[in-house]
Every structure is written in structure tokens, then in C-alpha cells.
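hiii so um. not sure if this is the right channel but i have a protein structure encoded as C-alpha cells and i wanna go backwards to a sequence. like what aa goes where. can anyone help
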């Protein structure tokens, strides 16, 4: 039932802009895991997006993709001044939050995705409003062997021992980056972290950031890392209130004893 509702929402957003091509691509992807055979530029309620052929970029572009997370961001965005998008892929969340007026900082390590992210920022006239870095977030700086999924482009991840890498990406600790970003102590910061199982390591690499900034909330995918592992990482550095966003994501809001 939930899947039917999701597909219906997708359908409504595509049809709002007369995009029959994405409707057809959706059915084809569901049935055969194949997609449209030529590059396209589509408009959705989330913005304008370049969609690579033979990928599910069109799905990421849909306003209702990962609706539980989107709804949480839409419901709470006025509480924040800065949005950090860890694992930005083609920029769906970065574009949405930048259009809502938040200062937005995006990280996407896979060059194939980063190039599309930059193209999408240009299509939405947001290149001056979103700072984007071709870097992944981890616990230290290193070059990682990655598996890039050419169809499900958001599922790229560090190659396991039994997998063959098809690209190399740069990983850095956020603590080595944020001092150059000019984030202020009084900023109210929302971090979305979806890094395909590297969430605990990315949090370890952000220890000083987590300790330093009082107004801090995370939305984290726990599908691969596990909720307990994520909470253990965060609880090393500060106290957090936790809650459920959807079946694959939790939120963690820093609890300040002096507030």
C-alpha cells in the first residue's frame, strides 16, 4: 500500500508538468530496472534536473522521492539557517533547501554525480547559493576505491572486499573542512547525512564540529549503518534527542543543557 501511494505521488508530480517521459521511465524501471535511452532535462516541483540516460536520475528529481525525509525538511526548514548535504548525489535536497533560502553546502564524492550536481545547480540558477565539493565525508583523508552504480547512481559506496571498484573518490573528515566555510557559532545547522553505510565514520570525522556548534540537528540514514551504531558515534561527543523520520532515517537534535 505504501509503495502504491509513493508511485501515485510520483505520477502526480510528473503529470503536473506534463512529463509523460518520466512516467514511462518509471514503469520501465520498476519492471526491468532499465531507464530512458537518451539524456533528458525535466522539471518537477523540486526544480529543473538533468537526467542521464539509462539511470534513475529522474526518480531523484521527483519532489516526492524519499517523501518522509523531504516532509521533515519542509516542516522544519524555518528553524535553520544552514543546510549541509552529505552525499548530495545529483542535488535534489541541496536544490530544494537552497530554494527555500538556507545557506547550502553539498558534498558528493563521485565525479560522475558531482558533474550532474553542478549542472543542476546551473539549471536552477543556484551556483552562487550552493557551495559544492567533490569530496566524501569520513573519519580521515584518503583516496577510496568506490563502486559506482551506473543505473542507481545514488547507491555508490566504498568497495567491499568481494567487490570490484570502478572509480576512486576523495574522502575527508569534516573537521578538516568546516573551519574554511565561515559557519558561525550562532548558526542553526541542519545536516542530512546519507553516505551508504559510512555514517558512523563521517560522524567520527566531525567530532570538533559536533562539540563546537550548539544548534545542530542531523537527519541520518540508518539503513546500512544501523541506528545503534549511529547513536553510539554521536553520543561520544554530545547529548542528543532522537526520533524517527521514516523507515530508513532518524533525526538527532543536539541537546544543550544550558539552553
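sure thing!! here u go:
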Amino acid at each position: 500500500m505504501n509503495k502504491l501511494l509513493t508511485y501515485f505521488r510520483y505520477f502526480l508530480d510528473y503529470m503536473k508538468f506534463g512529463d509523460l517521459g518520466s512516467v514511462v521511465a518509471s514503469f520501465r524501471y520498476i519492471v526491468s530496472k532499465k531507464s530512458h535511452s537518451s539524456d533528458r532535462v525535466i522539471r518537477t516541483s523540486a526544480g529543473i534536473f538533468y537526467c542521464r540516460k539509462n539511470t534513475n536520475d529522474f526518480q531523484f528529481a521527483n519532489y516526492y522521492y524519499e517523501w518522509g525525509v523531504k516532509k521533515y525538511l519542509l516542516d522544519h526548514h524555518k528553524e535553520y539557517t544552514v543546510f549541509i548535504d552529505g552525499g548530495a548525489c545529483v542535488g535534489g535536497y541541496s536544490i530544494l533547501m537552497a530554494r527555500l533560502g538556507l545557506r547550502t553546502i553539498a558534498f558528493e564524492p563521485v565525479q560522475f554525480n558531482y558533474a550532474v550536481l553542478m549542472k543542476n545547480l546551473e539549471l536552477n540558477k543556484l551556483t552562487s547559493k550552493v557551495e559544492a565539493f567533490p569530496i566524501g565525508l569520513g573519519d580521515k583523508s584518503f583516496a577510496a576505491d568506490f563502486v559506482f552504480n551506473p543505473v542507481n547512481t545514488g547507491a555508490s559506496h566504498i568497495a567491499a572486499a568481494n567487490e570490484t571498484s570502478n572509480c576512486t573518490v576523495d574522502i575527508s573528515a569534516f573537521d578538516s573542512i568546516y573551519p574554511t566555510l565561515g559557519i558561525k557559532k550562532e548558526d542553526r545547522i541542519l545536516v542530512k547525512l546519507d553516505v551508504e553505510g559510512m555514517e558512523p565514520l563521517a560522524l567520527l570525522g566531525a567530532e570538533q564540529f559536533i562539540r563546537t556548534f550548539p544548534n545542530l540537528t542531523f537527519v541520518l540514514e540508518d539503513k546500512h549503518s544501523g541506528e545503534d551504531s549511529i547513536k553510539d558515534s554521536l553520543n561520544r561527543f554530545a547529548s542528543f534527542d532522537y526520533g524517527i523520520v521514516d523507515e530508513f532515517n532518524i533525526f538527532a537534535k543536539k541537546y544543550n543543557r544550558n539552553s
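oh and Residues 2-16 form the longest helix (15 residues).
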